Amino acid sequence: QVHLVQSGAEVKKPGASVKVSCKASGYTFTSYYMHWVRQAPGQGLEWMGIINASTGSTSYAQKFQGRFTMTRDTSTSTVYMELSSLRSEDTAMYYCARKGPDFDYWGQGTLVTVSS
Amino acid sequence: QSALTQPASVSGSPGQSITISCTGTSSDVGNYNFVSWYQQHPGKVPKLMIYEVSKRPSGVSNRFSGSKSGNTASLTISGLQAEDEADYYCCSYAGSSTYVFGTGTKVTVL
């Protein structure tokens, strides 16, 4: 069955960068796109971007353009997200979610805490 | 891209039906039949309940149904049960490979 396993929690200082991984299994990795979604504490879901696991092409929410990057490694069936210039407002749970259809399978989430 | 508008809360008694609205614009909900709905219990990962406006994934109860009219999509839960108490989010394709979520609705079973 489909599994998306994300890397562990991170604590970062303001201005730093964070990179989170999402390892997929149970399906043909390159046949699907992958979304990234975040949820600040007590807040709603926020779409960040999507990557084509086959070609690596990406689309980002305008809000994150310039400091958010998604990549993938087809040899390990892993997608990555990197968020730079972190600020306190970036403290959130970050999820990867497979597109097929929409957000059908989700990772367990990675808590990123930004604090001085 | 602004979040889709949902009521902050909706409540109902067991056995009743409730409907959650999700209002967008002609650039998202009104222009594409790619509206989906997610259920999220506290501390849990969101779960896909409806996709492409009205389709149910395998394993989702037929008590959940979706529809759309113009710029507003709706999720109806019939025969409300205690386990349905959760947060619900809509999401729409917004063109150019972008998506937008709704503000979220807390469903309370009285």
Structure description:
The complex is a heterodimer of chains A (116) and B (110). By secondary structure, chain A is mainly β. Helices cover 0% and strands 53% of the residues of chain A. Chain A is built from no helices and eleven strands. In chain A, the strands form two sheets. In chain A, strands 2, 4, 5, 6, 9, 10 and 11 form a seven-stranded mixed β-sheet that branches. Chain A has a four-stranded antiparallel β-sheet with strand order 1-3-8-7, with no helix packed on it. The model of chain A has no long low-confidence stretch (mean pLDDT 96). Helix content of chain B is 0%, strand content 44%. Chain B contains no helices and nine strands. In chain B, strands 1, 3, 4, 7, 8 and 9 form a six-stranded mixed β-sheet that branches. In chain B, a hairpin with a 5-residue loop joins strand 7 and strand 8. The radius of gyration of chain B is 13 Å and the shape is globular. At the A-B interface, strand 5 and strand 10 of A face strand 3 and strand 8 of B.
Order of helices and strands of chain B: EEEEEEEEE
Mean pLDDT over the full residue set of chain A: 96
What's the average pLDDT of chain B? Answer: 97
**How much strand of chain A?**
over 45%
What's the Cα radius of gyration of chain B? 13 Å
The helix content of chain B is under 10%
Helix-strand category of chain A: mainly beta
Unreliable spans of chain A: none
| N- and C-termini, Cα separation of chain B | 35 Å
- Total beta strand runs of chain A: 11
Overall radius of gyration of chain A: 13 Å
Oligomer: heterodimer
How many individual helices of chain B?
A: 0
Tally of individual helices of chain A: 0
Classification by helices and strands of chain B:
mainly beta
Uncertain segments of chain B are none
Largest sheet of chain A: 7 strands, mixed
Helical amount among residues of chain A, as a percent range? Answer: under 10%
